[in-house]
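Before relying on records like the one below, remember that each one covers exactly one chain. Contacts with other chains, cofactors or solvent are not represented anywhere in the record.
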Amino acid sequence: MRRARRFHMASVILLNKPCGVLCQFTPEAGRACLKDYVPVAGVYPAGRLDADSEGLLVLTGDGALQARIAEPRRKLAKTYWAQVEGLPEESALQRLRAGLDLGDFITRPCGARHIHQPAGLWPRDPPVRRRLHIPTSWLELRLEEGKNRQVRRMTAKVGHPTLRLIRCSVGPWTLEGLAPGQWRECGVPQIWG
């Protein structure tokens, strides 16, 4: 077992979290967790991704920075790529953009648009289920909030359940150059200093 590295508090770690990995450092029987990918002591996620979601996870050892990144009042934009069932019409995108009543809360207005499958996208493990007679398409959603399973609940509400969900950016940080399971340490932009 590798020894945990020391971490510079004024930095962040960007991880491309694979599908199926729990967003915690405490192991659970038979489940991969962050400890399996980031051998760095004293860092914690600033926000979460559910086990079925993939993509950018920002970690830091600075509690104040962690709170600033995760705090909904700061309106730090998070961008997601969602592969959905069907071909959403403009009316469905308008509903997503305007905000939706999900029962326990109403989502804030957000960005929503059709995109092509993202270039360089890695295969998902396990693969997304295929249904011969139901096409799929990709959406890009840009939110300034992030409640539990929010994107999945939003796309389902407009009739297009999410099959695959990838967070590609959080504020100034992106997935660029990170394969699934890879991470890198980077500095904090001056606006956060």
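Residues 90-98 form the longest helix (9 residues).
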